[in-house]
Design a protein that fits this description.
binds adenosine-5'-diphosphate, alpha/beta, 38% helix
Length: 169
């Protein structure tokens, strides 16, 4: 049985088997969650990301996909990097946003992770409206066929927390 929980706070302070990063396809760092994870997790994470760019993901990690690295100094065993879709004037592709959650859980299952902490992917710089992103995220994890026991959404601010709480009921 998978339980879904909700907390408000900084995802880099969470303890979980895996912490999900809202990365960009370069895997070489960015702002928001990405910047915070690399700052607090230390250089081992970026080193592992560079190795991925030099091997499996020479052209970067495609949108909607996920890949794991060490979690460095974070209180976790792995960081799972996933690339959310950008939401622009034409909207965004909800299947790609759902894919981020599903693929992250698939990678978590491969690793044997039992607890996974997710941020609200694509709702920062990538501009996805919070209520819609919360609906897609909650539906995606509820529909996932996973052995992960705890899926924890970690929402940075009140607004995001409220949007996810409303969806989880
Ligand atoms: P994206 O590029 O996918 O939009 P961002 O990192 O810009 O990713 O933002 C995703 C969400 O994560 C936003 O709701 C943002 O407020 C939130 N966020 C930013 N920093 C943190 C953090 N340290 N812990 C948890 N959530 C965070």
């Amino acid at each position: 049985m998978t339980g879904i929980t909700l907390v408000q706070g900084d995802i880099t302070h969470q303890r979980a088997d895996a912490i999900v990063n809202a990365a960009n396809s370069s895997l070489l760092g960015g702002g928001g969650v990405d910047g915070a994870i690399h700052r607090r997790g230390g250089p081992a994470i970026l080193d592992a990301c560079r190795d991925l760019r030099a091997s499996r993901y020479g052209r970067g990690l495609p949108t909607g996909r996920a890949v794991a690295t060490t979690a460095g100094e974070l209180d976790a065993r792995w960081v799972i990097h996933t690339v959310g879709p950008v939401y622009n004037a034409a909207g965004g592709d909800p299947s790609l946003l759902a894919s981020c959650y599903r693929e992250s859980l698939r990678v978590a299952d491969e690793l044997g992770a039992r607890s996974v902490a997710f941020p609200a992917i694509s709702t920062g710089v990538y501009g996805w409206p919070l209520d819609d992103a919360a609906r897609i995220a909650v539906d995606a994890v509820r529909g996932a066929d996973t052995a992960v026991e705890e899926i924890r959404f970690v929402l940075f601010d009140d607004r995001a927390h409220e949007a996810f709480a409303a969806r989880l009921g």
